[in-house]
Amino acid sequence: MSAAWWGRESLDPLVPDPLEPPQLATPGRAAVRAALAARIAAFTPEWRRHTPGDAGDALLGLHGELAEPLLERLNRMPEKAFREYLRAAGIAAVPARPARATLSFTVADAAPGSALIAPGFQVSAAAADGSGARVVFETERALYAAPGKIAATFAQDGKRFFAMQLGGADPAASNLVFGAAPRPGAALLIGLSGASAPAPNITFMVHLTARGGPPPVIAHGGMAAGGVVAQPIVGWSFFDGGRFEPAEVIRDESRGLLQSGLVELRCPRTWRTGIPAGVTAPKPLRWLRLQLVAGAFAAPPALAFIELNAVTASAARTVRGEVLDYVPDSDGRRMRVTQRPVLPGSLQLTVDEGAIGAAAVGAQPWLEIAGLDASGPDERVFELDEVTGELQFGDGMHGMQLPRGMRHVVAQRYQVATGAAGAVAAGQITSLMSSVPFVTKVGNALPASGGHDAMSIPEASRLGPQRLRARNRAVTVADYELESFAAQGADVTRAHGVGGTHAGLNNARVPGTVSVFLLGPRAVATPPYPSQASLDAVASHLSSKVAPAGVEVVAAAPHFHEVSVRATLAVAIHADFGEVLRATLRELDGYFDPLAGGGDGRGWPFGGVIKYAALVRHLIAHVPGLVALSTLNLTVDGEALGACSDFTPQPHSLLWPLPHELRVVEKELP
């Protein structure tokens, strides 16, 4: 097309604005003054000479100045009422969410056995916000830390053995542990040092190679995908007495090297040192073997490194045995903890109820619930506002009334969440705050993921109606999207759920599966891929706390189509050509932006079609000085599309803008 075919004159001038809260009164002191001046003739007809500077004029100005803040507050009443409605329905702002990190402990070689690291073991790091404070991380589960370290690793292909380096901490390292074309029988051998045999369990963290593109898909819950689509079968075994014996797998979050994850094995009763045939180790070690038993991988598994004695930890500090005080003027129904924000679900409360009749009741546990309205008069329950730390007890009709007393309500345990300050970098968690014999060191090979401060009031108001529908349970696919933002340790900016589709199997139709495509924070020059830790946190949270039993939750990064535009801009003669060019480039990048693009500014829709006409109209409407577009052609994934063509992306995919090619010509305004 050689001539401008669609110009600014074709735009509809009546474009509806986004819905805003209603204005109950015209704000501003000038509006107040004008409204009063219009009433002078009716209410004070004797005041005929109202000139600037006289006493009456000064009173008008004073009244306008005093009324202005009142009107501003009056106009905020609809927004305030909306928030109070949400609060009455039990919907409050999401409190701070702690970051999560994978820790690796080192136990001295001379230790007489494995060291038990109990849940809640504390380590610390300098805060990520640069405040100079210390952030406390606590382990989430028990860990039997084996003595020694990974001293040698070998890949086995038939009768050939190849030494590998899997004890580092480089997430980009790539080790094809089963070779470039994995066949049944291929194996990975791991040799452990240490004077004593580990017992009763041993735990590893398997890190797949972090590639330049999206991270590997993570799945939790439900039935394994292998029940629907054939997957490779791998087996663990211990080397003892000159041969390998099968190992009991307690849990395998890696799903047989399909994703990064923790692997926990039951140790054998006897586990002696030795050297398997074909291995060129300098001294006897305790050996583990991971072997491909049957099947084939879609792509050969590439491992970056393996961590011994790994466990997940969250940036939350535990407070124990705190006696609660009443909130003033609360009629004995409200109390408050001293530390906040409280990590949801962490508060364990007891109330000493004294004696009822001749029987001593003593301290009884009370249960935290979402709302008291559905509770009976004999139920020992309370509500908790995690942000303010306030507890609300029943009134005798909806929930049992709190017995009178002093120092009788005790928070036996609760955790205080650390927000964005917990998102520390790799290698920063090095300080041991708790103590266990023979545990000498701790570290985090990868950055802590997630860590968010409390949700802002505007964001809470926007998401409030959706949270009111979800109620922390996933019934519809949209509920999975919403609850993804509540996952601890996840840094999520957008989420898109799809039912009956398995993202890890090329979006194959798999009943009982929900895939959630996630975006992470904005990156400098790459699409906003989520971290693998974020995928794991979301999949684990949704499958264990939100989804119905039996549903498999798959967390994945979406596919991005690379889009660029080649266009000729018809610009008004007296416009600044350079500024029009720069503004058009900004609008194109912004329009295709996965986080803030699209027509509503909330990100390009997942799987959204690029409509040629809508793109042209958007540019003309938002770029001052741009009169028309003579030509506009799209290039997607390196392929040029025809003139005036729309583009339909792959399902559930997004766009990523590349540099554009623009040419400017002059045109008279119509």
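[next item in queue]
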Amino acid sequence: MKKQSSLARLFAYAGNYKYLTILSWILSVISAWIALVPFYYIWKIIREVLNAAPEYSQVEHLSSYGWSAVLSALLSMVIYIGALMCSHIAAFRVQANMRSEMMHHIVTLPLGFMDSEGSGKIRKTVNECSAATEAYLAHQLPDQAGAYATPVGLLVLLLVFDWRLGLLSLIPVGLAFLIMGSMMGKKMEQKMKEYQNALEEMSSEAVEYVRGIPVVKTFGQSVFSFKRFRTSIEKYEKWTIAYTEDLRIPMVAYTTIINAVFTILIAAAFFFTASNTFLLNLLFYIIITPIITVTLNKIMFFSENKMIVADALARVDGIMDCRPLEESGREEQPKDHSIIFERVSFRYEDTAKDALHQINLKIGEGEHVAFVGPSGGGKTTLASLIARFFDVTEGAVKIGGVDVRDIPSKELLEQVSFVFQDSKLLKMSIYDNVRMGKKDASREEVMEALKNAQCEDIIEKLPDGMDTIIGTKGTYVSGGEAQRLSIARAMLKNAPILILDEATAFADPDNETKVQEAFSRLSKGKTVVMIAHRLSSVTNADRIFVLKDGEIEESGTHESLEKANGLYAHMWEKYNQSVCWKVGV
């Protein structure tokens, strides 16, 4: 199948607005040709002055020629503004449609997609790649049409007045095109892709760095503590310097030649017979040839901009080509709220080793279990499979005896609530943030959820209560407070299966007490899966599963695992030592 051009792709997003884009090209061409008309009147002014010399009082048409030149220039500007109006309307529509289509597609992708790709990278693709297409359609394509039309009109002017000077003017143009070709092509396209990759990597790492600033400030570390961010900056620096050095000689040669057109014309004057007509044409050519320089520079940058847009569309395709998790179409309903893992293995893309390997376990309805173990053991991955953030590589995850792949996505989301380690609140009111758990909830229901989640003290100190918008006028909440608001959201949703991923990680002692009380209310009558490093929070769990290297090392109650003297007992001992640790005096 033949690959569509970038323009065809953009027209697909434009719909009927593509005709406005085409109209903008036509108007830009007309504007470019009319813009050459003032030069014709300038030639007539020079001719009349030279013919009348030295009796300048005999000059009669200077005023009319001057006004004709001004009116032609104004007409060209008006038509060009019309071209830009058409192109901007179409470009804004393309950008809006592209962003809308990407966002609609992103929300259909599994939640694991955001973790694997990184929010910084996705944000850059959605915002900056669509913005690149907007600039291309709104400005560069109309200008490109005018830039290609200008040489045609110039060629007519250059050859009509004096074909010898016209041909001489074209010699630097030909040389400039040859040099331009050496800087463009497949090599330049690859360089542009590398440039965008370097920018994307630096943008993504910058987002992660900004998120880690609290740690940097707490421990007095510098930017160099973030090795990946530093490496991405150094990589971009090396690439930029190397690329600039590669293009230094051809760019200098191009700039010198294209700006020296009039020099050739002046040299030619010494070889041709001087006359009033020749002098007239020479002056006219010296005035008009700088347009060639401007036009060629535009054409050169158009090639670069086209590559940028092609790369932007390729990155958009990178998101659009990611497929949502397949629906089986069977649409079975769970019989209860138990959870079963049957020979479950899972491997992330581009990795050689399973993150989980042959996991078998059953969690009964209403049972409270905990996943603990060393970092990287697979705790969060295992819990994520319950909510189908990813699909298993092998085996099956079942809720109520039904494979999660056979449960409709909407139904599955209603079955499971997640309270994450780093709870996110959107820039909207507390009321709207909590109501995301249940879109049709009344204010009374939201307030009841806030009370049950121990959030009354948060609401009382905010200027507008639960109608306060987070992030405006310096209004923010702490990590522990954000956690309690997330619990209120989960309470309002009231899903029968609850997954708590390091949910007290950012809570201070006072907040932790309130969070734990909120959890106890939230967990009543629900199947609960807790992921924790703080072992004191899981001692009351019905069962504890200890994961190591993607496998279940051991399982049981806190008491039985402590007596078994295995990995859990070792972790419990180290945990108690850390709790009792004090700074020496």
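[queue empty]
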